[in-house]
Design brief:
elongated; 0% strand; mainly alpha; 6 helices
């Protein structure tokens, strides 16, 4: 095609204009990819939120034990019970005075960090 044909439009159209794009060949293909990306993004956000809530319960549980709050209070007992259920086990065992407080601070703190790390890794894997 000569330069004159390009400027006047008398030549054949370039192949990139006439060839159908992928979105035209499969209607809804782009919408499907967008929908899947949206679902993966929401799922990743939910996983991260669950990890943050678990870490927050563990941190509040450690704070409750450290401040020696009333264990007969319904909220305090709920938080400490939830922290006991979320704990992975004892990472470090303490003996002597204030062993329960030290154990709660260290073990629940480590568990909270593990929840945050695992949650962030899963968030990065799931998110598109």
């Amino acid at each position: 095609m000569t330069e004159a044909e390009r400027t006047t439009g008398t030549g054949s159209t370039p192949p990139e204009v006439t060839a159908p794009s992928r979105a035209r060949r499969r209607p809804g293909g782009q919408a499907l990819r967008t929908g899947v990306a949206l679902v993966r993004s929401r799922l990743a956000s939910l996983v991260w939120l669950a990890a943050v809530v678990c870490a927050l319960l563990l941190a509040i549980g450690a704070l409750v034990v450290a401040l020696q709050m009333n264990e007969h209070n319904a909220i305090v007992s709920f938080v400490t019970d939830a922290a006991h259920k979320l704990d992975f086990g004892e990472f470090k065992k303490f003996h002597g005075q204030d062993a329960a407080t030290k154990s709660a601070l260290v073990n629940w703190g480590i568990a909270a960090v593990i929840y945050l790390v695992i949650g962030k890794v899963l968030d990065r894997i799931i998110r598109p």
